[in-house]
Task: structure prediction
Amino acid sequence: MTTATNPRVLEHPAREEIRLEAVLHALSDPVRLRIVRCMARGDGDAFSCSYFALPVTKSTSTHHFRVLRESGVVRQVYQGTAKLNMLRRDDLDALFPGLLHSILTAAEAQADRLGDA
Amino acid sequence: MTTATNPRVLEHPAREEIRLEAVLHALSDPVRLRIVRCMARGDGDAFSCSYFALPVTKSTSTHHFRVLRESGVVRQVYQGTAKLNMLRRDDLDALFPGLLHSILTAAEAQADRLGDA
Result:
């Protein structure tokens, strides 16, 4: 008997498997931080990867979304051939109250300061 | 005329040069996060690198402290042949109000949850 892995099901850490270090690593990259800032403004909306019009190649973009998914920052589901992304705000807020808010606030302040809104 | 670089003077970013992404990267490593948690309990104290008794080689320890210094998380000064480390709490709080507190709180909560205090 063999076990087939469904390639359409993307692996995610359960809430209790999310680690602070992985979340901080995921958010330590300027492109990933920009993605998350943008999603946070969407208030629970689902975004396709292509929505963000990132200044990187498709494979780099795929890598960034995988880091965000595997760290527990976003949830990804397939819709047709596209992947939709949702910020796991409830999980992050439950595990680390105030953390996401303070990082997003810091990111907005820095963007304003550097003229990079 | 030549310019000599004093090897006893360690380079630090000025407050306005500190970047959120670099701070998050510095704190995304378990060893570095442990160092900063420990320093934060010291309320402004200066700690030698050897104080922390880290489970890593000396060169790895030196690397971790350099990442913390270059990101603006700690200030390092020589005292004899040892380096002393101080958390740059004032600079971080001024740039990113609430950020360090929320990360340290999240780290403590996770350590409690995982039995890794």
